[in-house]
Structure formats: structure tokens, C-alpha cells
Write a structure and sequence with these properties.
The structure is a homodimer. By secondary structure, the first copy, chain A, is mainly alpha-helical. In chain A, 74% of the residues lie in helices and 0% in strands. In chain A, α4 packs across α7 (113-123), α4 packs parallel to α8 and α7 (113-123) crosses α8 (126-154). Chain A starts with 13 loop residues before the first helix and ends with a helix. Chains A and B meet through α7, α8, α9, α10 and α11 of A and α7, α8, α9, α10 and α11 of B.
Chain lengths: 215, 215
Amino acid sequence: MARAPTRSGRPRKASETRAARERLLDAAHALMCERQTIDVPVQEIAARADLNVALINYYFDGKDGLLLALAMRHQADYAAALDRLLRAPLNAAAMLEAHIRGLVRAFRRTPYLQRLQHKILRDSSEEEAKVCGAALVAPLAAFYVALAANGVRDGSLLPVAPINLYASVVGAADFLFSGTASLRHGFGVDAVNDDLGAAYEDHLVRLVLGGLSTP
Amino acid sequence: MARAPTRSGRPRKASETRAARERLLDAAHALMCERQTIDVPVQEIAARADLNVALINYYFDGKDGLLLALAMRHQADYAAALDRLLRAPLNAAAMLEAHIRGLVRAFRRTPYLQRLQHKILRDSSEEEAKVCGAALVAPLAAFYVALAANGVRDGSLLPVAPINLYASVVGAADFLFSGTASLRHGFGVDAVNDDLGAAYEDHLVRLVLGGLSTP
């Protein structure tokens, strides 16, 4: 375990720096998952990590920087994974199915990710919004453009506008997690368990492939 | 036009009361649409309405009350409209198509509605959350339960779990509006115009009916 930081709030060693930085991100992640909101005060993030709140300024230059680091951490190998999927020996319809299942699972692990991304794109500095957009949105948009073109080329998908495919798939996959409060009030469901997660994957694949597969 | 309120912040007459209350709600609506966020300070809402900020406490007992009134106003006849649709002389598949088109249009008029609803369900007092859940979530959930049952009975839809149908249709319809920041970074689209709105309706109908219609 890392030693406590010095009274100035600065950690003593490189290994402690890394540990403290990661502990703050872990604490933010845990609180956002537990509370089903991204509105988590920095004091509580620091308290959960058992660290001085001043370290959030030290490592991340403030809360906006911490939010950006959290979004970037969760999708560090994101573009690479989409690229691997596009090079897999599958037709576009099978690729789309694999993508939908992966997306539902990714949002289950990080249910706040879409909301965090939108907050950064909307409220952060232009520079931070650009970093986030280039790292998280642009690769996914490019994936949908390539997938739609491949589907027409290999004959497995009907023509579809990439922006419509993107908004419907990402929106539907995200809502099961971002809309938890309405699931509780409408259906008495408090959280997405394994069965609901798996059934929702199957359901989305049925809608999207049912609507877009060639006959 | 209403006369200015007295110095105490209270308006003079019943007609002025109504006008001032509605002007505050109109101002909140306009700011949330323009800024694509529900995080709008009460000072700016009052300034836009050209009214004293104290009136927000007077009419709504604070910001939470204003947010609840705004959510309730936009769907005052919401349950009645769903009920009318269920009694229309249409089979369940045709009803589902009419509902999807209506939902995309409703979110286009009030792009912040889902986010506002979730904020109220999550952050407001238990009492306010119950009012919002009973007025806005429960009727929609009941509609999906009835629609799924009717679809099996009249043979126009394959069996589907209402919660999955709800999350996918509402999530996909909402994301075109709540995810505007990512549409800009991913596809260079700043706002949903008539053509995109109409194309998205057609796209969602194709996915949902393609996946759920009986052969």
C-alpha cells in the first residue's frame, strides 16, 4: 500500500503518484456507479480514496481534468478494439451483432460513460472537448461509416445512414443504464442483472439485424 | 402584458400570477433548448423572463419545484394521449409505428425531457419523484405492457418483454436529441433539422417493426 501523502498534499514517490492517481479515478468510478449519477463532489471522491482533496488539483488540474482522465481511461484501447473488429473475418451483419453485444457489456461495466462524455463535450474547455471527441466519438462514428459501407458491399446489410445507425444503437444500449430511475418507477427494476443484460443484448440484435439484414 | 411585480417580488393580480408563472416556465424551456442542457441557473431563468428571481421560490418553492412543474406541463395530457392511441382502430404493429413517430416528434419539441425526468426521479424529494414517476413513467410503462400483449393477441407482433421494448425505443428516440454533442463531434451535425428528424423516424420504425413484426 502507498504511504500517506505529505502534509502539502504531494505524494513522496513515483510509485505512490501512480497509486494515488489511480485511487482517485477508482473512487470516482465507484461513486458514479453506486449513485447512478456523474454529479459526485470532489470532496467525496477524495474521501473515498482516503486522500487529500488537494491531490485532485495536483494530478488533474481540477475536477474537469479528473472527469476527462476517467473517460479516457475507460476507453484507452477503444479505437484499437473497433479497428480489430473491422478486420475480423466476419461479414458486416455479423460484425454489427458482435459490436452491439460488446457495447451493452461495456455500458454495463461503465454505466455513466455516455453521460460523462456528453458533459465533457458540452461543459469542458474547447481543448478538452476536442481531446474527448477525437478519442471517444470520432473512432465510433468512423466505425459506423465503415460498417454501413461494408454491409452494402458484402450484401449482408441494407443501406443505412451511419448517423441513424449510431444514434439508435448507442442510444438504445445506453438507456438501459442511464435510464435506471425510470426502469424502477415503470417496471420495478432496480438494477440490470445478468439475465436482463443478456436479454437486452438479444433484443437489440433482433431489432437492428431484423431491420437491416438483407432478406 | 403583465405589470411589473411589486417590490416584494409578489405579483398584483390572479391574471398576472398566471402570466408570471408561465413566463418562468417558458424561459426555463427556452434556455434548456438553446443550451442543450438542463443545468440552467435560476438567476438566468428569471432574467430571461424579465422577473425577480424571488418569484421562483414564490411560485415553485424553489428550483426543484420549477423543474417538476416544467416536466409536468409538457406532458399534462400525456397519459390521455397514450390511452387514445391504445383505443385507436389499429393493430399493435401499426400502433407501435404511430407511437415511435410521435415520440421522436415529442422529443424534438422538448429535447431535454428525458434528462429532466431522470434528474427529478434521482435528485428530488421522494414525494416529488413519486409524482413525476406516476405521471410520466408509469403511463408509458403501462402502454408498452398493453402494446406487447395486444401484439401477441392480434398476431401482428412477435412476443417481446415490455421493459426491453421501452428501453430501446425511448433510448433510441431520445439519443438523437440528448446526444447532440456527440453527433457534432462524430458527424458534424449541429442540430436535428426536419430532414434528419423524418429520416430518423423512418429508421427507428424500420428497426423496431423489422425486428418485431410477424412474418
